[in-house]
Write a structure and sequence with these properties.
The protein starts with a strand and ends in a 19-residue tail after the last helix. The chain folds into two domains: 332 residues, tricorn interacting facor f3 domain (Immunoglobulin-like, Sandwich), CATH 2.60.40; 157 residues, Orthogonal Bundle (Neutral Protease, domain 2). Helix 4 packs across helix 5, helix 5 packs across helix 7 and helix 6 crosses helix 7. By secondary structure, the protein is an alpha+beta fold. The strands form six sheets. The chain has an eight-stranded mixed beta sheet with strand order 7-6-10-4-3-13-16-15, with no helix packed on it. The protein is 24% helix and 27% strand. This is Peptidase M1-like protein.
C-alpha cells in the first residue's frame, strides 16, 4: 500500500480436496500453529494425531483468530478453499445483488461457524443445499448454523444471497468513482463490504468474480478475464478467475467505462484499465510495467502470479494499493508508485503477512525496491547517498520511537515507508550484497503463495551468515530509538566510504518515503 497525504486535506486436509498447492497448505498450517493462531484447527488434546476427533461433539467455530491488532478477523473451524462471488450492480443506483458461494473444509466437528461480512442485507444462507439459520453480530460477523452439523474433514459449500445499496466507504472498501462507477480497495479490510469470506491473511483461496453490469460499463478484477457474455437486454456478465491463492484485502473489483491496455511481460499477460478522466493520462506510465517487472524479477525471482496489470481510477484516494495481479492506482501515481505496488506482488501478495505485526515484510521491501534499488540499479544513482539523505530526514521526522516489528494498531502504515527501506539497506551493507540478495530472493521463493513473519525472516537471514545479527535486528526492528552507529553505518556507509562518494547533483528529485505522503 502506498499512502498519499493531501496537503490541503483536513483530513488435515486430503490433497485431492485442496484448491492450492500442497506445499502451500503445509506451510500455512505450520506458520499458523507456530503463532498459536490457526486457520486450521489442531486435533483435540485427547486424540493424538486426531485419531478420535470424529467422536467429539460438534462445537461452534471461533469468531476470530486472535490477530494482535484485529482479533476478530478470520474465523475458526474451517479452511476456506474457493470463493465464487457473483454480483449484479447498477451504477446509477449503487444497488448490488450478490450470491457468494464459499467452498471450505471443516477442521473440527462444527455446529456453527462465522463468516466476516459487513455488506448489504442477507436474504438467505444455505449449507450443502439446505437452508441454514443465520444472524449478524458485531462489526462484521455473519453467524451460520447449518441444519446438520459438519464433521471434521468434510468439504462443504455455503451460499449467501444478499442485496442492497452499497454506500461509499471512501477508500475503506466499496468506493464510488466520479463517473458513477465503483471499485473495492482498502487495507487491512475491504472485501467484507461486498462479499462474505474468512477475512484473515492465514486463509488463502482461489477466487472467481462474476459481475453483471449494464452495457457500456466494463469490469476489472484479479487474475485473468475468463469470459464476457450477454446477460439479457442491456446487460453483460464479465467473469474473472484468480487461480493463485489470494486473501481478502487483495481482492478487488472495479466497474467503470474503462479503456484498456494489453501488454506482455515474458509469458505473463498484462491487462490494465483506465477510468474516464485524468486516469487516461497514465497509459504511458503503465507501458513501463514490463520493464519494471523484469527488474523486480532480477531481485526476487520469477513473477509469482498468473497475470498482471493495473486499474487506474479517477477518485481522489489517499493511497494506491497492491490488489493482487492488478493494483489500484490513485490519480497521483507516478513511476515510483508503479515500482512499489508491483514489488508488492512478491512482498505482500505472494508472501503475505502472518499477522499485522509483520507489515514490514510488505512495506519495507516494496519501499526499498522503489526508493533505493530502482534508482541505484536502473538510474545509476548512489544508493549510499540516498540512504544518508533519507537518514537525515528520518531523524527530523522522529521515526525512531515506532518499531518496525509490532508498531501497534494504527501505526502499521507509518514508519515502514521511511525507517523500513533504511533498515534493509543497512542490513545489506552489514552482511554484504551476495548474502543479502540471495537471502531475500530465496525467502520470497520459499514462501511463495504462503505466509511469513518478521521473526522467521530474522531467523532465515541469520542462517545465511556466521555474523551475529541479534544486535542489529533488535536495534532496527524492535528498538524505539536511533540505532547505534555500528548498525547505522556498516560497510560502505561508514564515514570513510562516504567520503569517496561525492554528492550527486539533483539527487533529491527521486521520491523517498512516499508511502505516507506526497
Amino acid at each position: 500500500m502506498r499512502i498519499h497525504k493531501w496537503s490541503d486535506s483536513g483530513k488435515p486436509i486430503p490433497a485431492a480436496l485442496r484448491a492450492r498447492p500442497v506445499a502451500v497448505s503445509a506451510l500455512a498450517l505450520a506458520l499458523s500453529l507456530s503463532a498459536g493462531v490457526a486457520a486450521v484447527a489442531a486435533p483435540p488434546s485427547d486424540s493424538p494425531n486426531g485419531a478420535a476427533a470424529g467422536a467429539a461433539d460438534p462445537t461452534p467455530g471461533s469468531d476470530g483468530l486472535g490477530d494482535p491488532y484485529y482479533p476478530k478477523d478470520g474465523n475458526g473451524g474451517y479452511d476456506a478453499l474457493h470463493y465464487d462471488v457473483a454480483i449484479d450492480y447498477n451504477p446509477p443506483t449503487h444497488n448490488l445483488t450478490g450470491k457468494a458461494t464459499i467452498t471450505a473444509n471443516a477442521t473440527q466437528n462444527l455446529s456453527s461457524f462465522n463468516l466476516d461480512y459487513a455488506g448489504p442485507a442477507v436474504g438467505s444462507v444455505a449449507v450443502n443445499g439446505q437452508p441454514a439459520q443465520f444472524s449478524r453480530t458485531g462489526e462484521h460477523e455473519l453467524v451460520v448454523k447449518p441444519k446438520t452439523a459438519l464433521p471434521l474433514g468434510q468439504q462443504f459449500t455455503v451460499i449467501v444471497d444478499y442485496a442492497g445499496t452499497l454506500p461509499d466507504s471512501g477508500g475503506n472498501g466499496w468506493t464510488y468513482s466520479p463517473s458513477g462507477g465503483a471499485f473495492a480497495a482498502g487495507e487491512p479490510h475491504s472485501a467484507t463490504t461486498w462479499y462474505p469470506l474468512n477475512d484473515t491473511p492465514l486463509d488463502k483461496v482461489t477466487l472467481t468474480v462474476k459481475a453483471t453490469v449494464p452495457t457500456g460499463w466494463d469490469v476489472a478484477s484479479n487474475g485473468v478475464r475468463a469470459s464476457d457474455v450477454p446477460a439479457g437486454t442491456g446487460k453483460h456478465t464479465v467473469t474473472w478467475e484468480a487461480k493463485d491463492p489470494i486473501i481478502g484485502y487483495l481482492s478487488t473489483i472495479a466497474i467503470d467505462k474503462f479503456t484498456r491496455l494489453t501488454q506482455q511481460a515474458g509469458s505473463t499477460p498484462l491487462e490494465s484499465f483506465f477510468a474516464p478522466g485524468g486516469a487516461q493520462q497514465k497509459k504511458d506510465l503503465e507501458k513501463k510495467l514490463p520493464s519494471v517487472l523484469a527488474f523486480e524479477e532480477q531481485l526476487y525471482g520469477p513473477y509469482p502470479l498468473q497475470a498482471g496489470g493495473g486499474i487506474y481510477v479517477d477518485t481522489n484516494l489517499q493511497f494506491s494499493l497492491e490488489t493482487q495481479t492488478r493494483p489500484i492506482y490513485a490519480p497521483w501515481t507516478d513511476l515510483n508508485t508503479l515500482i512499489h505496488e508491483n514489488a508488492h506482488q512478491w512482498w505482500g501478495d505472494s508472501v503475505s503477512v502472518k499477522d499485522w505485526r509483520d507489515v514490514c515484510l510488505n512495506e519495507c521491501f516494496a519501499s526499498y525496491t522503489a526508493d533505493i534499488l530502482y534508482p541505484e540499479r536502473v538510474q545509476g544513482r548512489n544508493a549510499d547517498q540516498i540512504y544518508r539523505r533519507a537518514l537525515a530526514s528520518a531523524d527530523q521526522q522522529g521515526v525512531w520511537s515506532t518499531p518496525l516489528y509490532d508498531p501497534g494498531k494504527g501505526n502499521e502504515f507509518t514508519v515502514v515507508y521511511t525507517r523500513g527501506p533504511l533498515f534493509l539497506h543497512a542490513l545489506r551493507r552489514y552482511i554484504g550484497d551476495s548474502v543479502f540478495f540471495a537471502a531475500v530472493k530465496d525467502f520470497a521463493q520459499g514462501h511463495k503463495h504462503g505466509n511469513a513473519s518478521i521473526p522467521e525472516f530474522r531467523q532465515f537471514v541469520q542462517s545465511r551468515t556466521t555474523k551475529n545479527l541479534t544486535g542489529f535486528f533488535d536495534a532496527w526492528l524492535n528498538g524505539r530509538r536511533r540505532p547505534p552507529s555500528e548498525y547505522l553505518y556498516p560497510g560502505s556507509l561508514s564515514n570513510q566510504g562516504m567520503q569517496q562518494a561525492p554528492e550527486e547533483p539533483g539527487a533529491d528529485a527521486w521520491p523517498f518515503g512516499r508511502g505516507d505522503r506526497k
